[in-house]
């Protein structure tokens, strides 16, 4: 299992303060959604937890300073699915998914039987086994998104941070991905997903962080975070909110008046 704690986190990119004084902790067996409007700092928060951007404050993984952890060790602890990746090399899907095993391999090492089994498991879970022999650069956007998710799953890390994992996916595969992320959390993993779809966030996440202008403005259960006042203040919208039944939904009605 793995845990993350951030304290007084700040990120400045160029002359803009993207994150300011963010404090939060993330525990195993929990699917946490990070939501908020465009430019709020959601993706930067995800990257900061992995020491991929310069930060102030503290980020600790299993009570260790993330900035001092060897990169391969961190990658074995927390798999990362960044948003909007561009593929440049004409690798087969199976080989691309296999790159997820790199944190477990030493220099000049070859993929062992255990690695091959992990790759197969990841492709099954992401529903890309039928694409095994396809060239990844020739895939559609949705197919590519699922393959890159499989690459992250192939790490078999106890933690997963996924930045906009539903982008480019059709509704059916959006459901499949959210089912998968929830299953990962139910199995004991720490799972964090940056999401734009508030209905999906309400239906699947155990907890939400609502981020706006670089700060966390709400943190808690979806029913508490996705309150009408918060949606007006952060998104500037009025919405019909039904979070009481088996199928929570949020329908945007228009700009708040």
Task: Describe it.
By secondary structure, this protein is α/β, with parallel strands linked by helices. The chain has one domain: P-loop containing nucleotide triphosphate hydrolases (Rossmann fold), CATH 3.40.50. It has 9 helices and 12 strands. The strands form 3 sheets. The chain has a 6-stranded mixed sheet with strand order 6-7-8-3-9-10, with helices on both faces. The chain has a 4-stranded antiparallel sheet with strand order 2-1-4-5, with helices on one face. Strand 4 and strand 5 form a beta hairpin. The N and C termini lie far apart (46 Å). The relative contact order is 0.17. The mean pLDDT is 94.
List the SSEs and their pairings.
Elements: E1 4-13, E2 16-26, E3 30-35, H1 42-48, E4 56-61, E5 64-65, H2 71-77, E6 78-81, H3 93-98, H4 113-125, H5 141-154, E7 159-163, H6 171-186, E8 190-194, H7 198-204, E9 207-212, E10 215-220, H8 222-225, H9 228-235, E11 237-242, E12 249-255
Parallel strand pairs: 3-8, 3-9, 6-7, 7-8
Antiparallel strand pairs: 1-2, 1-4, 4-5, 9-10, 11-12
Brief synopsis:
With 257 residues, the chain is an alpha/beta fold. It has helices at 42-48, 71-77, 93-98, 113-125, 141-154, 171-186, 198-204, 222-225, 228-235; strands at 4-13, 16-26, 30-35, 56-61, 64-65, 78-81, 159-163, 190-194, 207-212, 215-220, 237-242, 249-255.
